[in-house]
Design brief:
The protein has one domain. About 65% of the residues lie in helices and about 0% in strands. It contains five helices and no strands. It is elongated and about 55 Å long. The N and C termini lie far apart (about 90 Å). The relative contact order is 0.11.
């Protein structure tokens, strides 16, 4: 039974290491911010998730429930996409362009917080179109 646990933990550690390595290579090799955003978010989600699954399997075989590992998994799966979205929104706000030229359609339209500023001027209450006179 100990051998089964060691094999399972080793497999998940190897999977997590592979995703972390690919994420590190992506951070170095990808040319701009928009492409680099995928490397840390995917590697942290998949790599860290695999590491935490390995830790849960190990703690289950040790006779304790892996509550801390489940909590860390939930927090990592929530914070990685949210932080990537915030970084992408900040890059769009700063009008950074992609070197591949595939992102600029999002730059030409107003960002969500800019739509409220570009509304048509409000009409005077006395000059309403509903008034028949």
């Amino acid at each position: 039974m100990q051998l089964v646990m060691e094999i399972l933990v080793s497999i998940f550690l190897l999977i997590g290491s592979f995703f972390m390595l690919v994420g590190g290579i992506g951070m170095v090799r990808l040319p701009d911010l928009f492409m680099r955003l995928h490397a840390p978010t995917k590697s942290s989600t998949l790599g860290l998730g695999s590491f935490l699954i390995a830790a849960m399997i190990f703690s289950a075989f040790q006779g304790r429930f892996g509550f801390a590992e489940i909590l860390l998994t939930l927090l990592a799966f929530i914070t990685a996409p949210v932080s990537a979205n915030l970084m992408a929104q900040a890059a769009l706000h700063l009008r950074l362009r992609s070197t591949g030229g595939e992102v600029p359609e999002a730059i030409e339209r107003p960002l969500p917080w800019q739509r409220s500023r570009r509304r048509a001027p409000t009409q005077d209450k006395n000059n309403s179109h509903d008034d028949p006179t």
